């Protein structure tokens, strides 16, 4: 239960497109707090001052608003040990984010103070453009603070550090600049890494983590193709739809299912008229593509099992049985039964029921057809048998389920 509360906290922050990191005890993920920015800029260990800050200032009940030497803002929070695993430290970092976009003069001033060469101006400007912007107000800070207090049952004390605009603790002598910093390249590589993680979780049907990485992806700037905001959004979602369909293809989903879903989203993309609608579409796309994987993935199956599953998917209303498929593929019933159970973890008969009942649920949700008509359409000619299988699966009769749907829609 405690770990679920930490997950809820992380999801709330992810909704703002802001990076967050629960540091590990071995500090191996310390570079994650700034997406490897300092590691790309400096030699050796550029995070030692942060390590020192954590151990010196971030104590139980600490909630610290921290402005770093680049004038980027973070929250440092101490998480009680009963909310974390054995490998994790109590240090939770939110950020970086900005309250205003720095001007060129401000960036030059920061670079001068940190003794950064002028040739890095373009790269540093690009980095700032990738930082999430939270306009100066107390709503985000207050929300995260109150949420932390409530979820972790801790009376946190808000502190601000440092309380002066000059960051003398970051002496330019203490950090050695790399000979050829690759800041933009590193940022692009990181974006592609996050994109690959998103697609990997999508191919596994993991909705929560796929959407989390989609939100992280949104923190990176993308060069606009048009001066029209909505047109840029459409370009972005067309690419996203293509990436999603290729990701689920790797999990063995039949191309007909992929094409059906991607075509629906292709139409929706051109119908949307606001940023909020695109935001909702993104959640829907992640959810639907992950659901497609959960219901239709066939990766790792032998060709004969793939063919049987595909046949069931598209011919579920026909009279299907073990005998039918053993004759179709010229295999003995004991061998086919054993092979199907070994590869899918389900008996062939149970799998046929799963496909039919899943289709019945879809029809109940999207139509006003009678239960008898739905049963026949899904391959059940004995209505009582259909009701028995449905009740065994969902714990209620199809009629009770239909009434619950109608009640919910009112």
Structure write-up:
This protein has 410 residues and is of the alpha+beta class. It has 18 helices and 5 strands. Strands 1-4-3-2-5 form a 5-stranded mixed β-sheet, covered by helices on one side. The longest helix has 22 residues, at 275-296. It starts with a helix and ends with a helix.
Question: Can you summarize this structure?
Answer:
This protein has 410 residues and is α+β, with helices and mostly antiparallel strands. Helix content is 56%, strand content 8%. The longest helix is centred in the C-terminal third of the chain and has 22 residues, at 275-296.
Instruction: List the uncertain runs.
Output: 164-173
Q: Which overall shape is indicated by the principal axes computed on the Cα atoms?
A: elongated
Largest sheet: 5 strands, mixed
SSE run: HEHHEEEHHHEHHHHHHHHHHHH
Task: Report how far the terminal alpha carbons are from each other.
Answer: 33 Å
Question: What radius of gyration results from the CA coordinates?
Answer: 27 Å
Beta content: 5-15%
Question: Structural class, from helix and strand content?
Answer: alpha+beta
Overall pLDDT metric = 85
Helix content: 55-70%
How do the strands line up in the largest sheet?
1-4-3-2-5
Q: Number of DSSP helices?
A: 18
Number of strands: 5
